[in-house]
Amino acid sequence: MRSISLAVLVEKLGGELIGSPDVLIAGLAPLDSATSADISFLSNPKYQQQLTQSHAGCVIVGPSVAALASTRGPCIVTPNPYLYFARLTQLWRKRTSRDASGNPVIHPSAVVDPEAHIAATARIGPLCVIEAGAKVGEGTILKSRVTLGEDCHIGDRCIVHSGVVIGADGFGFAPDNGRWEKIEQLGAVRIGNDVEIGANTCIDRGALSDTIIEDGVKLDNLIQIGHNVRIGAHTAMAGCVGVAGSATIGAHCTVGGGAIILGHLSLASGVHISAATVVSKSIHKPGNYTGIFPLDENANWERNAASLKQLHSLRDRIKTLEKENKP
After folding, report:
1. Residue 304, SS3 per DSSP
2. Separation of alpha carbons 260 and 268, rounded Å
3. For residue range 184-213, what is the model confidence (pLDDT) as tens digits?
4. Of the candidates 72, 77, 79, 288, which lies 20 to 30 Å from 65 by C-alpha distance?
């Protein structure tokens, strides 16, 4: 790839450049491994030592460390270095990607039902399956081996990574004298605009009404979304999250990797769940929530776990002692 000058970067992305605008950048790299041909960024002030020791040709920094950054070489100052870096990666991708303008909208190996609708600017990758009544919006990209079930819709400018399955049957069975009777899943999946779905994630169709993923939602790899779940706009979930059926999650939430949200619960907008937490009740107020038994050496963990089992009886004993000693 051709190098790009700092002057051109700032012209395209903004920010205040301190240093020579003629410095050429050929790559992006972390602070600790960057060379003089790379640009890097510092978003967390606790890594200032890495900043001073970095060989990066330019560093993207916030105003609070601009003076320090300028002592080591060129820097771009911006209120949100991480956001600036994100936009820089998008620019870099456009400059380095192979030209796809001549590629077919639908790869020859994809299987698309005649009753499906694919927008003219969408891209359907190798070995994808698009079933009857499905719809793919403008500018949306389906990578290889994506399955879009019947009547399921994906909005505009979405990215769906390899192996994703949208619209498989939800897990619904009625018990009948020791056996299970299947509940046909008659709903679909509706995905909004600007959604990104990671590899091998599965989103089940609704039982009666649709499973809904609103605009701007970001789902990592290997996530399971059960039937009739609703995820609010711009919520993000890390890898291996599981959301059971009919849960409703508000807008602008985050869910850490490996967390579990039980079925039929509601999470307010602005709720942030730590990794590996099991959400077993509805959360009605925004905030940060954690439900993890802290890591410890195994022997200590076993002793603490044994103590936890006695909390109920200890509480009753304390209440009894309080009553006996009440003035």
Report:
1. helix
2. 16
3. 999 999 999 999 999 999 999 999 999 999
4. 288
Q: Using the Cα atoms of residue 181, residue 187, residue 188 and residue 192 in order, give the sign of their dihedral.
A: negative
| Cβ proximity of 257 and 274 under 8 Å | no
Chain length of the chain: 327
Three-point CA angle 73, 89, 9, nearest 5° = 50
How many other C-beta atoms lie within 10 A of the C-beta of residue 130? 26
Q: Which of 153, 161, 227, 234 is catalytic?
A: 227
Annotation says 107 is catalytic: no
- Continuous segment of H or E residues that includes residue 306: helix 298-308
* Closest to 91 in 3D by CA, of 11, 24, 155: 11
pTM: 0.90
Got the DSSP string for 120-178? TT-EE-TT-EE-TT-EE-TT-EE-TT-EE-TT-EE-TT-EE-TT-EEEEPP--EEEETT
